[in-house]
Each structure stands twice: as C-alpha cells, then as structure tokens.
Task: inverse folding
C-alpha cells in the first residue's frame, strides 16, 4: 500500500468513527484502549475461550468513575465465514461470568445489560482486519477523543512473536487475523501506526503505556521501533497466557495516586502473582513466566551500548578461538520460547545475560569488549525498571535480542529477504551486521571441530534435551558422557550437525545435578567439553 492510499483509508475510517459515535462520558483518570485481535486460535484457548475470559475480567475490575475501558474485539468464526463479529465494547461492571454484550450483535454470547455493545462500522462490513494499521490508528484516536482521561493505556492483544516469525509465513509482527488471509501488523507497520496516532492526538495527549498482551514482545527490536510513541511498555520476553485485567483495573481504582511508572510496576507484580496462584488460567507457563516494564525514552541509550558491543564483536569474530567462545556463550545464554526447539526456532535470548557472560568469560581477556558488555548491562538496568520471572529464567534481565542458535535459523527464518536488517534497530546499530558476519563465517561449515559447543548450559532435563552442536554437516557422531568422578554415564550416537541427550543414564534414570563431561568422536576427529545439569 502506498503512503497516500494509507492516509486516505486512515482518514476515511477515522471519519466513520467520528460521525457514527457521539458518546459523552465523564473525564476519567485512565482510559484503556484494548485492541483485541481475537480472530485466531486464542478465541478458543484457555479454559474454553481466552477472549471471553479477558472481557469478563475487564467487567469484573472496571470502576467507571475513574477508568474507561473501550475494546475493539474481533472474534473468530461467526456467520458467514467469520464476517460480522467485530464490535466495540464500552465496558461496564458486571459479575456474571461468560455474559458479555448484546447477543444479537455478539456471536454466541448471552446478553448482559450492564455492558454496552456498539457495532464497529467498516464500509458496510462488520468484519475488520485487525492486521490493517488503519484500524489500529482509527480506533485508538477515536477512543482517546471520545473517552478523555488523564492517562491512556493501549493494550495490544493477540498472538505475538516479538519481531519473530509466525509459521508458515516467515514474517514478523503482531495482531494476526485469520479471516483476513493471515494479515498482521509487521514491526514496521506497528511503529508507523503508533507514530501516526501520536501525531493525530490533540496537543498534550500521549499514550502513557503500551501493554503487549502477546508472547515474546519484550524485545529490544520492538522497543526501539516504538520508543518515540509512548512513555512505557509492559511485555513478556517469554510465551504468556494473558494479563489479569480484573486485578489491574482494581489496582487503578484503589490507588488514585499511581503515576504511569508505578502502574507499570504494579502490572508486572500482578502478572507474576496471577501466574503463581490461578491454576486454571495462567499456570501453564508458571515456571517460564516473565514480565517486564521498560522506559522507552531510555531504549536509545541501550541501542547505543549494543552498537558499541557489536562493533567490538565484529572486530574480533574472525579469530577462530574467539568465534568458538562466542558460540559457546550464545548456547548457554537464557533463551525464550519454553523449549529447546523454540531456542532454535525463535532465536531470542536475554541481552543482559549475554552481556554478563561476555563480561565474566575466562576464555579471553579483551578488556575493551568486557567494558562494552558491562555498559550494555547498565543500560538494561536503566531502561528495565520492573522485571519478574519464573524459575526457568533466573538470569532474565527483562529484554531480549535476536541471536539465532544456528546458521539455518538465521538464513531460513530470522533473516530471509533481509527483513531483520530493515528494522530501525538494525539500521541504527551494528547488531545485524554482527549477526551477518557471525553466520557467514567460514568456520560455520568447516570440517574442524573448534566451534562445537553445548546448549542449553546449564541443562535442565525436565525442560528438554541438551544439544552438542556445531559439528560439520553430515558428521557421524559417537558421544560418551561422564560424571565428575569419571564414571561413564551414557553412550549416544547419531549423524548430522548435532546430537541430543535427554539427561538419562544407561539405565533410563535421570542423572543427578552436577558437572558432566563429554567426549565426541567423529570422522573429523575428537572433541571434548563439559556442561552443568540442574534437576528441578
């Protein structure tokens, strides 16, 4: 779509909003703008329907004297073929579960007279494409105009993947709309839409908080793309199952003195608590949960520190021994996606943990590089002011970065058609250049074994298998694993560029926590290494 077509559609959609809706409401302390892109599998997930759960929790927590909550909800299904099921809801307090809106408008849901349901106009069609940035712009600006408040929180509700891919289409974004041919908001479209919203708002108006209720969105790439569009963002580095909207709204009503920063801290705390206590709706990701609050005005400083680190990594990556060390550090860094397959698929790792491991590595003594890594850590602490994690992520610093595990992941998923390199973060820093040099290194496909490493390290058997990886392609691999006393624990064999171990001994029992050594014999020679096993 060209720029002028985009602007025309934006103006048309916005004019429809302003002409159809004429609502007078009291000035609130907060208005929540909830962009609920539920035209996908989430409309049938989590104890039946995740869409219904969150709409009902909004009703439970709402106090219309101090908070407005306006939802643009696009649901899955509906007659015919998914059409006619996009609505605007002006949330009202209601304690009746699974009753929301007007049954004549809201497909398959019983009537609740305490909630107001308004049909969303869209050129004669009540099925909106939530992956079209025009609709995000129009809904947000209309809500802010019609529901004035001291503060505004924009909730982006959907599947997410940071800037990472949604299979089978290897493109990056949020707000996937199944009915609209899998359209979505790309990272670039999201940034442009939020920038346009800011420009269209009346003087002095600003979105205070952007809450990403979607998986894997707490990434530096996303934060950098939207850094000039709001004051704060709240998101998860990991996969997540939703936010407790009832508790969030009650917290706003109970604490009139909260400013935006304090509310972000509270949301992170409430997220952490609900994943610990609500066994039916949130505990599926209990141990892997993460939530963080990021001050967007400080993300530029973080990007500068990452740029310096990337520059130094580029200058040294041609040294084979150093390349091997960085590969080993990457394999042992905190990653997100809950499984070892996700480690390879998504490629998102914690930037604080990566910098910490570089700074404290005993395998090299580059003081300038270690100083740069220390600066990255300081910058993370400066912009991430709230961070809660489960036991699976003890080293999470609250914001991730793209660093794929393998060259295949980089070339096939993370950067096909150079789409990673088109992000603002990639344009303004050398991080994408570092990844390009790292994954185009001649050592990647060499027949030597110097870059063989293990991951994850430490290895938690209950979370998946450990990989000994980076063997030359099509290697025949025979591995012997020993405990710290030198006793043979297990023999495994296979072929390819890596081999996996499930953490069990030759008798089929999971081994005890401790340090373990491996000796790998291949047709290109023998390599040795070690890793740590932690049982939970």
Result:
């Amino acid at each position: 779509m060209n720029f002028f077509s985009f602007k025309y559609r934006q103006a048309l959609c916005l004019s429809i909003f302003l002409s159809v809706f004429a609502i007078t409401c009291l000035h609130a302390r907060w208005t929540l703008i909830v962009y609920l892109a539920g035209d996908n599998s989430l409309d049938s997930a989590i104890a039946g329907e995740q869409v219904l759960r969150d709409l009902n929790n909004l009703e439970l927590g709402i106090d219309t004297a101090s908070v407005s909550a306006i939802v643009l909800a696009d649901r899955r299904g509906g007659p015919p073929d998914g059409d006619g099921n996009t609505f605007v809801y002006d949330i009202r307090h209601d304690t009746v579960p699974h009753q929301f809106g007007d049954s004549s408008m809201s497909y398959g849901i019983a009537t609740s007279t305490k909630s107001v349901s308004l049909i969303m106009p869209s050129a004669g069609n009540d099925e909106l494409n939530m992956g079209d940035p025009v609709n995000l712009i129009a809904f947000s600006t209309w809500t802010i105009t019609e529901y004035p408040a001291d503060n505004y929180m924009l909730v982006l509700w959907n599947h997410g993947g940071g800037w990472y891919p949604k299979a089978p289409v290897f493109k990056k974004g949020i707000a996937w709309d199944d009915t609209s041919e899998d359209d979505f908001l790309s990272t670039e479209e999201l940034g442009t839409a939020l920038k346009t919203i800011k420009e269209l708002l009346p003087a002095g108006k600003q979105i205070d908080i952007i809450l990403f209720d979607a998986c894997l969105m707490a990434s530096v790439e996303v934060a950098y793309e939207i850094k000039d569009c709001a004051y704060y963002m709240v998101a998860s580095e990991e996969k997540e199952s939703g936010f407790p909207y009832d508790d969030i709204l009650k917290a706003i009503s109970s604490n009139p003195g909260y400013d935006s920063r304090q509310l972000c801290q509270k949301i992170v705390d409430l997220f952490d608590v609900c994943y610990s206590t609500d066994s039916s709706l949130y505990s599926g990701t209990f141990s892997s949960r993460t939530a963080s609050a990021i001050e967007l005005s400080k993300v530029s400083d973080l990007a500068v520190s990452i740029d310096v680190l990337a520059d130094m990594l580029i200058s040294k990556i041609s040294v084979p021994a150093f390349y091997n060390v960085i590969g080993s550090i990457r394999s042992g860094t905190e990653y997100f996606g809950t499984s070892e397959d996700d480690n390879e698929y998504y490629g998102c790792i914690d930037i604080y943990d990566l910098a910490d491991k570089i700074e404290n590595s005993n395998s090299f003594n580059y003081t300038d590089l270690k100083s740069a890594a220390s600066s990255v850590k300081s910058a993370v602490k400066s912009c991430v002011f709230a961070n809660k994690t489960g036991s699976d992520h003890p080293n999470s610093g609250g914001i991730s970065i793209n660093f794929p595990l393998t060259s295949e992941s980089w070339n096939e998923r993370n950067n096909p058609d150079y789409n990673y390199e088109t992000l603002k973060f990639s344009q303004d820093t050398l991080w994408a250049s570092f990844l390009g040099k790292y994954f185009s290194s001649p050592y990647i496909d060499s027949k030597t074994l110097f870059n063989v490493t293990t991951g994850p390290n430490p290895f938690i058997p209950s979370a998946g298998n450990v990989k000994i990886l980076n063997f030359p392609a099509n290697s025949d691999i025979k591995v012997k694993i020993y405990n710290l006393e030198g006793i043979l624990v297990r023999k495994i064999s296979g072929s390819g560029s890596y081999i996996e171990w499930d953490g069990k001994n030759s008798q089929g029992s999971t081994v005890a926590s401790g340090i373990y050594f491996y000796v790998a014999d291949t047709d290109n020679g023998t390599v040795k290494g070690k890793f740590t096993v932690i049982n939970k």
Notes: The CA atoms of residues 265 and 386 lie 6 Å apart. The radius of gyration is 25 Å. The first strand starts at residue 28 and ends at 38. Residues 301-381+391-439 form one domain.
